[in-house]
Structures are given as structure tokens and as C-alpha cells.
């Protein structure tokens, strides 16, 4: 097959950009995105997702473009566009449809189209393949070939980066699988697992995140039970995790566009074939309800409408990504309870937060609060003096246990799950 492939990565977000940069050190690589603003920023050396430093971006021999014709001579297309859910929690495949249509217009005989977006089994071959065929007039499996390689990177995680994690690949033929193993293997020392076929690779990714979601839901459920019993779930987990086979998941809000979304893809696929994925959907319901549970527990410890400082709005610690953050639900619940809320997050973009949640981020921390809610454990919050933020008798509501081991003056009260 193709000896020295030219690669086009379609979609330059959290997944596409680091991947394109890593591949560009071995292969002629171009990154394409429909968002002209994003491409312009990247060309200026700024990655707003924080995944690549400006140095890494400048050093990567990567071409960038928002013009489709500029990727028309690629041999391999790697599609890394979003796969969210709609308002009914059903898979929204629109970005995949549009990206496949775009690739279809430039597709040529002998090309390979690899999808990296998280999907349910069957999407690559039964949804994307036919779109590529229709637009290009070529036939999948004979004129061009499909492949799937799930992405496992974790936003903000500087340890498990694309060059260090095992990459699962699958091609429509064994030659395509071998080609993908060679391409991806060039960036991670050959650390490749070739899955039996494309649906197996798709299934493997979606269950990785569904499994995490279910395990976190279990811990959230026991956190709620033990909370009512006056037992700290963190103390319980410390004790239980000394057993060799105990799975040590942490309680909390499950947001973002992976763990809180992907299980719905699997549930949808199950329902389409007449099954009722009870465990998967029950896990989702438990996790989605946690903002209400947490707001209820904190409210019980306050005497009427109070002045609250919420620290953190992003969906997880130390990242700027606010998409599908469950802190938005937590704040909405506090507002419904009549509290006066200040939200502070130095990592989040102010304008984006206002657009997405209607929440105005404060420029400064302020003081004199009845309660400080540690919603997202950004490292920077460790430096704050809780004593200076709170009134005498104020409550430290430590949602993620980030101040668990910090001693507090007797004048402050503390709540954690
Ligand atoms: N974020 C993660 O850490 C992560 C981890 C594993 C898997 N995934 C999966 O990878 C996929 C991409 O996620 P992401 O976080 O990188 O998304 P993202 O929103 O950060 O980036 C997607 C990019 O694709 C671009 N795009 C959208 N439609 C396009 C089109 N038709 N043509 C070209 N570009 C287009 C957007 O402008 C955006 O820049 C999703 O399926 C996600 O579930 C994400």
C-alpha cells in the first residue's frame, strides 16, 4: 500500500491538533478545520485548548488550512470532529456527516479515510462510508478504504499523550490495518493493537468511557448514602482502596464531551436493536443528578439565602474547556435556592461562559462569603486563603475533596462528600 503517505487531519480540536502535530514529524501532514478563526490562531502559534504550547506548535512541521481544496492531494484522511448528543441525549452525527461530505468531494481512488471521533459500532461503515461513496462516486472497500482508530487522550493530561498511549486501529482490510499500524506506530514506538474489525474498535472506545461513567455513578451513589449517614466517602475510599482489587473511582460531577456523552451513544445503539441498556442509562441518570444532590446538601448547611463563591466552571480540573460542565447545573440549583452567587475561574474564557451558561465570571475573588464552593479542583485554588474569603462561621463546601488535607481554623465549617 501507500509507501510515504500524505496525511490530512480533519478537525483541529483537542484530539486533532496534537495528533496532526505528532504525525507531522514523520509524514507530510496538513491540518484542516472549518473554523477559520481557529486556523488563524493556530498559525499565530496559539492553541486555546492548551494542549500544545506555542513552542510545540511552532516546531511541528505542520501545514494548517481552512480551505478544503488544500487537502485534496492527501492519501490518508483522519477525521477528528465532535460527536455530541442533542437535547434528547441522542447521538448528533451532523459534524461527522459534514466532514464526510467534505472529504467525499476531494476523495480519490486508493485513499484511506480513518475516523477517530467516538461513535457507536457501525457508524464508520454504515453511516460515514455511504456518505463518502455518494459524494465521491467511489466504492468503499475497493476504490477507497475505511479505517477507525479511537482516541484515548484526556484533556489536560500531560502524561498520557498521543506518543505514549497504546493506539487501537482497525482497517477495512488487513492491508489497511497494517498501514494504520505503521502510521500510528511511528509516533508511539509501535505501541499498536490491531482490533479484529472496525465495529470492534468502535465498540472498544465507547465502552472505555461508559465503564468509567458507571463506576463513577456507583461511587456517587455511595457518596450520597454515606453523606446521609455522616460518613465521609473519601475516608471510606481510602480504607477500601487498600484492597488489591478495589477500583478506586472518585465521586463528583461528570461533565465534558466524553464520559458524560459517550454512554448515550452506546445506549442508543442498544435501543436501536431492541435492547434496554439499564445499567448504562442508570449510571447516566445518577451522575447527571449529582449537581442537585450536592446543591441540596450544601443548602441544608446554610441558613437561608446566602452569599456563595463558586470556584471553577470548567468541566474538569486544570483545563479551559467549559463544554457540558455540570457546574452550570450546580449554579442553577443554587440560584433556584435563592443564593447570591459569584463565580470565579481564571482558566475559563469569560465570553464563552456568558454565551454558554449566561454566567458572568467575576474578575476578582471578593470576600465576606457565607460559603465557598470548591467545584473544580484547579491547582491554582490550593493557593487561596479560605479564611480571607469567608465570614466567621462560613462554610467550606469541598465538592472534589481538594482541601481535604488542609487544616482550617475552628471558626470555619467544612462539608465534603
Ligand atoms: N477531547 C478529548 O480529550 C477526546 C478524547 C477522546 C476522544 N474524543 C473524541 O474525539 C472527537 C473530537 O473531539 P475534540 O474534543 O477534539 O473536539 P473539539 O470540539 O475540540 O474539536 C473539533 C474540531 O473539529 C472542527 N470541525 C467541526 N466540524 C468540522 C468539519 N465538518 N470539518 C472540519 N472541521 C470540523 C471544529 O471546528 C473543532 O475545531 C469527538 O468524537 C470526541 O468524542 C475526544
TrEMBL record:
Pfam families with a match to the protein in the record: UDPG_MGDP_dh (PF00984), UDPG_MGDP_dh_C (PF03720), UDPG_MGDP_dh_N (PF03721)
GO biological-process terms attached to the record: polysaccharide biosynthetic process
Regions that span the bilayer: none
InterPro entries: 6-PGluconate_DH-like_C_sf, NAD(P)-bd_dom_sf, UDP-Glc/GDP-Man, UDP-Glc/GDP-Man_DH_C, UDP-Glc/GDP-Man_DH_C_sf, UDP-Glc/GDP-Man_DH_dimer, UDP-Glc/GDP-Man_DH_N, UDP_ManNAc/GlcNAc_DH
SMART domains: UDPG_MGDP_dh_C (SM00984)
Entry GO MF terms: NAD binding; oxidoreductase activity, acting on the CH-CH group of donors, NAD or NADP as acceptor; oxidoreductase activity, acting on the CH-OH group of donors, NAD or NADP as acceptor
Superkingdom of this protein's organism: Bacteria
Domain UDP-glucose/GDP-mannose dehydrogenase C-terminal: residue ranges: 309-405
Swiss-Prot/TrEMBL keywords: NAD, Oxidoreductase
Family matches, as SUPFAM superfamilies: 6-phosphogluconate dehydrogenase C-terminal domain-like, NAD(P)-binding Rossmann-fold domains, UDP-glucose/GDP-mannose dehydrogenase C-terminal domain
Family from the record: Belongs to the UDP-glucose/GDP-mannose dehydrogenase family.
Protein name (database record): UDP-N-acetyl-D-galactosamine dehydrogenase
Species of provenance: Aestuariispira insulae
Amino acid at each position: 500500500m501507500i509507501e510515504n503517505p500524505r496525511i490530512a487531519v480533519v478537525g483541529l480540536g483537542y484530539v486533532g491538533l496534537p495528533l496532526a502535530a505528532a504525525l507531522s514529524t514523520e509524514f507530510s501532514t496538513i491540518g484542516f478545520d472549518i473554523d477559520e478563526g481557529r486556523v488563524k490562531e493556530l498559525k499565530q502559534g496559539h492553541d486555546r485548548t492548551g494542549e500544545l504550547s506555542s513552542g510545540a506548535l511552532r516546531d511541528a512541521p505542520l501545514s494548517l488550512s481552512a480551505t478544503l481544496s488544500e487537502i485534496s492531494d492527501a492519501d490518508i484522511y483522519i477525521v477528528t470532529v465532535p460527536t455530541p448528543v442533542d437535547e434528547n441525549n441522542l447521538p448528533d452525527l451532523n459534524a461527522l456527516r459534514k466532514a464526510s461530505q467534505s472529504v467525499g468531494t476531494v476523495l480519490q481512488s486508493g485513499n484511506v479515510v480513518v475516523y477517530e471521533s467516538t461513535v457507536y459500532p457501525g457508524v464508520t461503515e454504515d453511516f460515514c462510508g455511504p456518505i463518502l461513496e455518494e459524494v465521491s462516486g467511489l466504492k468503499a472497500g475497493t476504490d477507497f478504504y475505511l479505517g477507525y482508530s479511537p482516541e484515548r487522550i484526556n484533556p489536560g493530561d500531560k502524561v498520557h499523550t498521543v506518543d505514549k498511549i497504546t493506539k487501537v486501529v482497525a482497517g477495512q482490510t488487513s492491508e489497511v490495518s497494517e498501514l494504520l499500524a505503521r502510521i500510528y506506530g511511528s509516533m508511539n514506538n509501535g505501541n499498536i493493537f490491531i482490533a479484529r474489525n472496525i465495529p470492534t474498535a468502535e465498540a472498544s472506545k465507547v465502552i472505555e468511557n461508559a465503564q468509567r461513567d458507571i463506576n463513577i455513578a456507583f461511587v456517587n451513589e455511595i457518596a450520597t448514602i454515606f453523606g446521609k449517614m455522616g460518613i465521609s466517602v473519601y475516608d471510606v475510599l481510602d480504607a477500601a482502596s487498600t484492597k488489591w482489587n478495589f477500583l478506586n473511582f472518585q465521586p463528583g460531577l461528570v461533565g465534558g464531551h466524553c464520559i458524560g456523552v459517550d454512554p448515550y451513544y452506546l445506549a442508543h445503539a442498544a435501543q436501536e436493536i431492541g435492547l434496554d441498556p439499564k445499567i448504562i442509562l442508570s449510571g447516566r441518570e445518577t451522575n447527571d443528578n449529582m449537581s442537585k444532590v450536592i446543591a441540596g446538601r450544601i443548602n441544608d448547611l446554610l441558613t437561608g439565602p446566602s452569599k456563595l463563591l463558586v470556584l471553577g466552571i470548567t468541566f474538569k480540573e486544570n483545563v479551559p474547556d467549559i463544554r457540558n460542565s455540570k457546574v452550570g447545573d450546580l449554579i442553577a440549583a443554587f440560584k433556584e435556592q435563592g443564593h447570591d452567587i459569584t463565580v470565579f475561574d481564571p482558566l475559563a474564557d469569560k465570553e464563552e461562559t456568558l454565551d454558554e451558561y449566561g454566567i458572568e465570571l467575576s474578575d476578582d475573588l471578593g470576600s465576606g462569603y457565607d460559603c465557598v464552593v470548591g467545584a473544580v479542583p484547579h491547582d491554582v485554588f490550593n493557593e487561596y486563603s479560605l479564611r480571607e474569603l469567608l465570614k466567621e462561621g462560613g462554610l467550606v463546601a469541598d465538592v472534589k475533596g481538594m482541601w481535604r488535607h488542609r487544616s482550617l481554623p475552628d471558626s470555619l465549617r467544612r462539608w465534603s462528600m
